[in-house]
């Protein structure tokens, strides 16, 4: 039974690797399922069995990349001098990833076009929970104003996500990025409690 589970996992991984490459290089619409499955050494039947269809495969790839992005953002926050700086660093790291071609095309352009509102993707739930926990902690320590933690977390995550979407969709992403980061930091700073 364990061998069967390993085979299933290996098949899924091969399909996802091939899809990730095809979606990044060609985009979702142009990616051929026949070429993708041939590259993986599998059949279309394997794709349909494991993911339902091309959209299901995109959903799995987006989830994988989005989860990696969240982990990388947390890593970027690890060296921050305090919890507030860590929260800002996490949001900024997420926005900066919009410059990466794979993230840009798969997660920020094709993902929303095919899968709908990114704030409703299951992979975003973990990000929201982590942000709410950080906001609650900062409120309890008097760093942030005593606002509704869920509302603040949703707005912070939404600001970072929309900034990343803007960067990804812009014709000159490198010049948009610093503007997006500055605006994100200014908006987030509005939550800070007044210092006496």
From TrEMBL:
DNA-binding region(s) in UniProt: 32-51
Known InterPro entries for this protein?
DNA-bd_HTH_TetR-type_CS, Homeodomain-like_sf, HTH-type_TetR-like_transc_reg, HTH_TetR, Rv0078-like_C
The record's annotation in Pfam families points to: TetR_C_41, TetR_N
* UniProt KW keywords: DNA-binding
Domain named HTH tetR-type is located at: 9-69
Is DNA-binding among this UniProt entry's keywords?
A: yes
In its UniProt entry, what is this protein called?
TetR/AcrR family transcriptional regulator
Cite the GO molecular-function annotations of the record. DNA-binding transcription factor activity; transcription cis-regulatory region binding
